[in-house]
Amino acid sequence: MLAAFSVVFWAFFVLSLPPLFAIALIVYLLTAPFDRRRLALHLWSCAWGTFYLVVSPIWRVRVTGRERLPWRGPAVLVANHLSMLDILVLYALFRPFKWVAKAELFRVPFVGWNMWINDYVGLRRGDRESIRKMMEHCRAHLARGTPVLLFPEGTRSRDGHLQAFKDGAFRLAVEANVPVIPIVVMGTAEVLPKNGFMLRKRMDARVQVLEPLHPSAYGSVDALREASRAAIAAALPEANRPLSRPAPAGAAGGERPAADAR
After folding, report:
1. CA 85, 210, 100, 6: dihedral to nearest 10 degrees?
2. Integer Cα distance of 170 and 191 in angstroms
3. pLDDT tens across 88-118, in order?
4. Which domains, ranges and CATH numbers included, belong to the chain?
5. Is residue 147 classed as helix, strand or coil in its secondary structure?
6. Which residues contact 102 (CB under 8 A, 6 or more apart)?
């Protein structure tokens, strides 16, 4: 049954992209002159993403703590990354933010075009110049009062366990003196693991927004990073918690650890 559902879902997903992107383009053209942050377009994108969750008979997502996310005002949002489906369930937050995503996604028809007109942030992993531009792009969004959302593990977890965090998101928060808001994603890894597109089980996903962490309460980027990771780890089910304490992520030096992407 799940194999059949996978085929039907991906076929429906592909066929639905052109009309849903057409609506996004209309929203963008109508609102761009006065909506500098592209809030209306992002909220449509949230509706677009959660549409697939709503129409699926075997998927469910519950969000708690949404009120901790600002409608206006800068913040750095950090979430653990278990599956490609995290993108859909995080859209269920229905709050303003700009994703940091790998640059290859911006070339995907309709999906990438929507990311581009939303002014989401692209990144090529391992490319120092791309990392520098990503950091500058995020700083510009924060300066305009728009939160940015990063996956500080840098990529999806291969085994479902929380990985070490990179420094980039926390360096942004310290520089801009804005809160870090940890977000916990649960229940997506078993449905669509990192490798493959075959859906493996029903989904009962949860998104939990934790209490903000303010840089002023921590003495360094490292301390803020580890506090954020500890908060997420404590809220995760045992199966997704870290296997062991990782080496400090900032050891690479410079801005290279900022490669926070899917």
Report:
1. 0
2. 30
3. 999 999 999 999 999 999 999 999 999 999 9
4. 2-258 (3.40.1130)
5. coil
6. 122, 123, 124, 125, 261, 262
